[in-house]
Amino acid sequence: MQVRRVVITGLGAVSNIGLGVGAFAEALREGRSGVSRLRGPNTQGFPFEHGGEVHAFEPGRWLRRQSPAQLGRTSQLAVAAARMALEDSGLDAQGLRARRCGVSVGTTDGESFAGDQLLAGWLTHGPRALAPAELRKLPADRLSAAVAREFELEGEALTLSTACAAGNYAIGNAFDAIRLGEADAMLGGGAESMARKSLAAFYRLGAVAPGACQPFDRGRRGIVIGEGAGMVLLESLDSARARGARVYAELLGYGLSCDAEHPVAPDADSIAACMRRAHANAGIRADEVDYICAHGTGTQVNDAVEARAIHAVFGPRVPPTSSIKSMMGHTMGAASALATVACALALHEGFMPPTINSRDPDPECALDSVPNVARPAALRVVQNNAFAFGGNNAILVLRRPEARA
Amino acid sequence: MAADSALAVVGWSTVSPIGTGREEFSRAVLDGRCARRAREAHAERAPLAAACTIPDFDVTRHLGARGTRTLDRTSALAVVSTGLALRDAGFDAAHDGERLGVVVGTSNGSLRATFDYTSDTLTGGKPYMVSPELFHTTVMNCAAGQCAIWHKLRALNTTLSGGRMAGLLGLRYARRVLLSGYAEGLLFTSVDEFSEPFAWGAHHTFLSQPECDALLGEGSVTLALMRREPALAQHRRVHAELLACEVGLFDAGGAGREAQARGLAQCVRRALEAAGLGPRDVWALSRRESGVPELDRLETRALCLALEGARPAWGLAVARQVGECFSAAGAFQAAALMALFEAHPDEPRRIGLVTSVAHGGAAGCAVLRGV
Question: Any residues with CB less than 8 A from the CB of A137 and at least 6 apart, and which?
């Protein structure tokens, strides 16, 4: 089988720092924070006040073939981001169908808000009163099906629920499908909406920052929980060239690993192995990586372990490493998908997004975290890290498109 | 699918309502054993007269007492069947753990664990009065993480939320990652547990509809998979080859779900074509049929359309024995087919179809060959 090359030709971002790729790119350059006081009904009562809610999202603006009332919020976010990516690419739905396009969406908790509502109803009125229409919104497989339905795509629709690494898993899966010739285009990404369960759980684990999210800072005290969706349109290079598409980046490959040690604590050796596999699969050497978009959640343990793994793999040549979670908070299943969008923009426009809220970089991490201010840089190869509870890790490697001969 | 893209099932096992382990399950399937168990009526319980639950599942019997206390039932079922399949395949995780991976097919993870946990956030004095040590059981990738931890599988770890289609979607994903080289061996485990929240959800969305006589079930099935070439080169026992697997998403509306029926027929045709076969080559059907009338009828219609009058020698409907097992259903269908293959070793061309359909319009077909 001849190896097909895969490129990114469309970007969609529904985020608390901007809606749509233009606003998202501008926000990344500015180092804008999308964190605000929590307002949603399922977010009240916690001892922390801030989160990364997406306030300005109007689903009716983006959903054309489905009514927002039919879908939970997470599905709405996914569909909106997919529509943005499609419009950004210059293709239309018919063009996707002609390319046997499939859909791959990652999430941590799926329609958790719908679940919260149903459960509250159960506790108040009993299980007999549950509404079938609300129950039908709940299954996580609806996320990818909703995206497929929006564009009348009849191929495979797959929801990957690999927690905080789900975006990379979904985009990686989309990459494989094109590579193997199953499809000529794929929509891949991740989506998440605010969930009571996550707010409660992370707080009880001691993982929620009382103030800002400060990845790689000595004073970092945890995550800020956020929501959003990121989607990319992937195409075979042939398909992109044939239609004269604007190519943001080439996806060279990705690496997978599993810690197999502990349900929540990350493992530096396994993460380092994942990086090495990503480089090998992408056909690059470590010293070719110009920038790392970190997992960088802002917890003491993640950032320390991630930094240790980076040093183990890169030796003396550690590239600048920033975390966009400093801006958006941890958007869970959407995080690495939004990071993929950020990486594509970084390569296309030539800049590294900053780690904001940086006051006192941790010498133990010993990283150039691109503190506070975005930095112009002619990037050629970038790496996008994603790790998750359960120990399932996925790292993507992207490259600036080659100049056409 | 070209010859070098076939997968080999080099081992398999199950924890099911009709038996645990490949041999016990196979005997039970071929004997026609059904796991229907009456349920006592109770205010809190969903109004189901019966269900196919696994009697007396005791995880400590399989894994010991240490470390199993906080395992939720979904994860426990998955970990046990994965271990049984690992042994059946003769995979050596101590030696090859870096090259072995696990993929788990689920619906929404453990509904019971999520229900209990989220209830605590709503009924406790404060919304965060929840147990930190149980949080991981409520994340959908918990079972996969536990399978890796218990069996030291490090190549890759993926969870997919496929609902009724998890079996076929998982086979496609497994094929993709094996052909792409992320692992040399893969344990594909699909699992769903019976619970009251699950039962109420099913009651409200389809079980209470007229003519529906489905029974809910539960269970975990694990297939140990490799690319066919290395499996043969290593002289492994091959139970079946996966020759093709096609899925699609179709319009679920209209009288008789006609578009979805045609869509499933299209998947069957494409799968047979990819396998280099035709309708007359099909020896056995392992149907999705579980007693949900509109889905069963559309499956029948689709097979009629696709098989063009050919009449396979065998028809299985394992959900009538183990119940409607959602995420685990597709793998149960494949397991039942392999039990049938093994019972007829002298039959020269054992080609079987696993078909699946879901309420939302998804449909698919896998083609397996007995070896």
Answer: A70, A71, A72, A75, A111, A114
Among A148-152, A384-388, B39-43, the minimum mean pLDDT is found in: B39-43
Whether A330 sits among the annotated catalytic residues: the reply is yes
**What's the pLDDT band for B130 if we cut at 50, 70, 90?**
confident
Chain centroid to CA A346: 15
Say what percent of chain A tops pLDDT 70. 99
Chain A nearest CA to B344, separation (Å): 34
DSSP conformation letters of B239-304:
SEEEEEEEEEE----SGGGHHHHHHHHHHHHHHHHHTT--GGG--EEE---SS-HHHHHHHHHHHH
* Active-site residue, selected from the candidate residues A330, A343, A348, A365: A330
Do residue B138 and residue A197 have CB atoms under 8 angstroms apart?
A: yes
Q: Is the ipTM of this complex over 0.90?
A: yes
Interface touch B148/A390, C-beta < 8 Å: yes
B18: left (phi over 0), alpha (psi -120 to 50) or beta: alpha
User: Of B61, B63, B53, which is closest to residue B193 (Cα–Cα)?
Assistant: B53
Q: From the CB of residue B262, how many other CB atoms can be counted at a distance below 10 Å?
A: 18
Pairing mode, strands B240-249 and B219-227: unpaired
* Nearest residue in B to A113, CA atom: B118
CA distance A167 to A351: 22
**Contact between A130 and B204 using a beta-carbon 8 Å cutoff:** yes
Distance CA B191, CA B289 (A): 18
- The answer to whether B121 contacts A162, with C-beta atoms less than 8 Å apart, is no
Q: Which two structure tokens, joined as six digits, stand for B351? A: 């080609």
| Residue A253, strand partner residues | A397
Going B40 to B44 to B47 to B51, the CA torsion angle's sign is negative
Tokens 């040590």 appear where? B133
Class of residue A210 by CB neighbours under 10 A (exposed 0-12, middle 13-18, buried 19+) = exposed
